[in-house]
Amino acid sequence: MNRATRIAVIVAMAIAVLAPIGLVVYQSFLDGPFFQPKISFTLSAYEFVLDDEDFFDALYNSCIIAFGMTAIAVPVGALLAFLMTRTDLPGRRWIEPVILVPMFVSSVVLAFGFVVSLGPAGFVTLWFKSTFGYVPWYLYSKWMLIVIAGLTHVPHIFLYTSSALRSLGSDVEEAARMTGAGPLRTAMTVSLPMVMPNILYSAVLVFFLGFELFGLPLVLGDPEGILVLATYLYKLTNKLGTPSYQLMAVVVVAIICIALPLVALQRFLLRAANRYVSVKGKAAAQKPVSIGVWRWPAVAMITAWLLFTVVVPLSGLVLRAFVSSWGEGVNLLDVLTLDHFRELMEFPNLTRGIVNTLLIASVGGALSVGVYTVLNLAAHRWPSGWTRLMDYLVLLPRAMPGLVAGLAIFWVFLFTPFLAPLRQTMIAIWVAYTLVWLAYGMRLVSGALLQIGPELEEAGRIVGASPGRVSRDLTIPLIKVGLFSSWLLIFVTFMREYSTGVYLLAPGTEVIGSLLVSLWGTGAVDLVTALSTINIAMIGGGLLLMSLFGKRSHG
């Protein structure tokens, strides 16, 4: 790309990123909806929200849940990473892919699974009560919400910590073992401290995700009135009976003000982590740490975590989709049925939601990867103030949870005359998904671009090729495998997304995620479990495709 094209691309991205945020901030200072002819600037919306006890209750709960889930996820995830990458734990090859499953399943689907498995009338609850005579847990309590949120976010800690541990040699660990240190002491005093910047980065990520939680608190917290910021925002309309745009905007501004410093801290920690690891140079040959008699207890711990976070909720959800009733004394084999799926197919909006989800994940995902590629090429090997601006702009959508971003983009389509006709089309959903996952998609594509040596592109320019032709005929063909991998990950990500489309839900724009939230509010449990099962199957197909492609690309 030439300089003018690069600048034009970055400016276009800046408009797309800043318009939703700017509109939200503007709306928060008005006394009515921004599209009304007579409006005036005021702080009344801020005064109302700051005088509302429910807002501070939601803020307090968000803080407690964020701290609690981080305190659970960090030690469990870091220990899992050490066991999987640095020890002779049996079955590592088979266990590791399963550890990442909670990242790829929508949190609202997991929440439904916990309800039908561990709820007051859940399968596991009824079995436990009939066997032991009592049930030691109550699913709709705050501490259970924290435990479930913490354990389901373990993969985020595991992913960043394990990738850093793999880059380290084993010489220091061997020295520690020679001095008599056991496996646990080696992990706590040698291995994990060496990747502490990565652990801190992932800890801040999980803490931030705690403020973004929507599906888990909506399903597990609502029965006991446990509000968090996202569910408080979602319920503002019901609270007043009519949509109150200015109050919703104030809550969005509050969430962004909390999220922006956390995103900035993440950026700082990521740089620190990269510097920390880069000092190591090439990793020495790795020799697994022998954990001796602790091998099978470690396997038992991992199995217990997988049972709780993956097997119990997903199996319970799928089982519920295939039975007409359940309870004490009910033989499940006698109540097996496909009626829930037949009923689902009788609703045009639900079948349309399945088709739309496939389209947005496949075609929309491919288009999004194309956008991310163009944006990366605009900044590729171009050290300037424009690229630094782009680096910061990319992070801004990450400061908006999916529910918040969906609302902001809904307002942009409502506010902009030439976009208004597209508001109730899948284009609006695609724009929202592309912006929400901008940072993630950019990182995926940039990883592929960084594998191309600068000398290849320089050779193209030497023989007279223009920058555009170098990108088209050299760079993009060389990264096509990386682009396909990026599309697979975006495919699964778009497939599991649910909160972004909640405010964009309209006839013709239905996707599975937003339909699940809507159906849960009506109490249609049979349809929810059937649609969730279909969603799990679609995500499973995407993960299988990723696995097959990974094996093929690595020989």
Describe the fold and architecture:
The structure is a single chain. Helix 18 runs antiparallel to helix 25 (480-496). The two termini are 34 Å apart. 73% of the residues lie in helices and 0% in strands. The longest helix is centred in the N-terminal third of the chain and has 34 residues, at 53-86. The chain has 555 residues and is mainly α. It folds into 2 domains: 1-19 and 347-554, MetI-like fold (Orthogonal Bundle), CATH 1.10.3720; 43-278 and 290-336, MetI-like fold (Orthogonal Bundle). The radius of gyration is 25 Å and the shape is globular. The model is unreliable at 277-284 (pLDDT under 50). The chain has 27 helices and no strands. The relative contact order is 0.12.
Describe the structure concisely:
This protein is mostly helical and 555 residues long. Helix content is 73%, strand content 0%.
How would you describe this structure in keywords?
single chain, 555 residues, 2 domains
What is the topological layout?
Layout lengths: L2 H26 L15 H7 L2 H34 L5 H8 L1 H4 L2 H12 L4 H10 L9 H11 L1 H12 L5 H8 L4 H12 L1 H17 L2 H7 L7 H12 L4 H34 L16 H27 L17 H7 L2 H32 L5 H11 L6 H14 L10 H11 L1 H12 L4 H9 L4 H12 L1 H17 L15 H11 L2 H29 L2
Helix pairs in contact: 1-15, 1-18, 1-19, 1-20, 2-15, 3-8, 3-9, 3-12, 3-14, 6-13, 6-16, 8-13, 9-12, 10-11, 12-15, 14-15, 16-27, 17-27, 18-21, 18-22, 18-25, 20-21, 22-25, 23-24, 25-27, 26-27
Counting helices, strands and paired strands, the structural category is mainly alpha
State the major sheet: none
CATH class of the largest domain: Mainly Alpha
Give the name of the CATH architecture of the largest domain: Orthogonal Bundle
Taken from the alpha-carbon principal axes, the silhouette is: globular
- Helical fraction: over 70%
Radius of gyration: 25 Å
CATH fold node name of the largest domain:
MetI-like fold
